[in-house]
Structures are given as structure tokens and as C-alpha cells.
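Can't paste images in this forum, so I'm doing it all in text. The chain is below; anyone willing to post the predicted C-alpha cells underneath?
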Amino acid sequence: MIEQVPSYHFTIKQIFEEHWENYLSRHKDSLRQDVIWTIEKMLSCRNPERLGYHKVTCPKHSDQYIIVPLVLVKLVSASSSW
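Text version of the structure:
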């Protein structure tokens, strides 16, 4: 009889959220600053507490609103490349 193993869905962001602070505290001296900045940017993306947000309120019902998290995007001119 074959045992069925439950499948789990994890995102890369979830893995970093759980382990990044510990990893960073142990390996900060060996990581390039741009790597640290990129991971911090990923962890902040769509997180109102870390990155900020817009609060959109209905003009007629000020008690009704939605929170729209800010998202970091790289702005590129038409002549430049990624």
C-alpha cells in the first residue's frame, strides 16, 4: 500500500518570511547589499505595514473604505533595458 503524502503550497515569499531574519543575522557579512535590498523589497511588496498603502474611502459613506497596498515597480524608460 502506498502512503499518500499531503501536498502543501508554499510561495517563495512565505519561505523568506519565515527564515530571512535568522539567515540575515548569521550571513549578513557575506551578502551583497543589492541582494539584501532585493529580498527586503520582495518582503515589503503588497504589505501595508512595511511599504504603506492608500486608503480609498467612499465620498458618501466615509465609514466604508478599502486598503490598497503599494507595490514596488521598476520604472524603465523606453530606451533602457532591464
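Helices lie at 12-27, 33-44, 48-51. Residues 12-69 form one domain.
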